[in-house]
Amino acid sequence: MSRRAAKPPVTREARRASKQEHILTTARGLLRQHGHERLSLRDVARRAEMSPAGMYEFFEDREHLVATLGSEASARLSRSLRAATRGVPDPVERLLRLGLAYIRFAKRYPADFMLQYGRLSKRRSLADEVPAESEFDQIRSAVAEVIGVERMDGADPRFLETQAYGFWSVIHGMAMLQLTHLAGFQADFATAQRLVLESMATSWGQLDREQILAMYVEAPRPLPKARAWRYTR
Fold first, then answer.
1. In a designed cystine with 123, which of 25, 45, 128, 129 is the match (CB 3.0 to 4.6 A)?
2. 173-199 pLDDT, tens digit each
């Protein structure tokens, strides 16, 4: 009879990686039960059946653990957005699906979503590069395709940032309302958000280049005087 091949020994690095993943799995469970505000290293250690001191071999402090969980959530969201838009040729439909996927992710993983956006952005100004494949990078790219940035040659680059920020604000606001103030509210949110996002994306495809150049130039022009509007029946 042939002798069964012996299993290779488990290395120290493999044991360490396995223990760290056990800690993260435990922390994810606590995060989804209680939210990130109540997450503590001591609670994670107790649930993972480790000593509090042993946790510091893997994470410097609570913020290190939270940052790791936040990075995981960000990567998961980015993958969800890519999957939702993959193979969609129409720019308007692609932007629409991206927005709906963002809201869907927030409702499916509320604790991860709240953790991710409970932290300060690493990007501190428009001069900083947008992290590649991040959610905002995907939003900005999708908005650029709808607008047709090649038609905007000469416009201030802040224009694209502004439009992408506007779209992000809308989908993020929808997600937050449904997670918090409107949680449990009975309404057809799916239809409402699709109509709003579709109208935004469609209107961007009809932007007039000359108007944009007049709004976003390196030396801003004086704003026209506000028109007085009066409601008549």
1. 128
2. 999 999 999 999 999 999 999 999 999
Higher pLDDT, 151 or 89: 89
Q: Could you tell me what percentage of the chain is helix, strand and coil, using 3-state DSSP and rounding each to the nearest 5? A: 65, 0, 35
Total domains present in the chain: 2
DSSP per position, 102-148: HHHHHHHSHHHHHHHTTS--S--STTSPPPTTSHHHHHHHHHHHHHT
> Which pTM was predicted?
0.79
Q: How far apart are CA 71 and CA 67, in angstroms?
A: 6
Say yes or no: 157 and 205 in one domain.
yes
Q: 52 and 145, same structural domain?
A: no
Whether residues 77 and 185 share a domain: the answer is yes
pLDDT digits (tens, 9 = 90+) for 2-48: 556 556 666 878 888 888 888 889 988 888 888 778 888 888 989 98
In a domain, 77, yes or no: yes
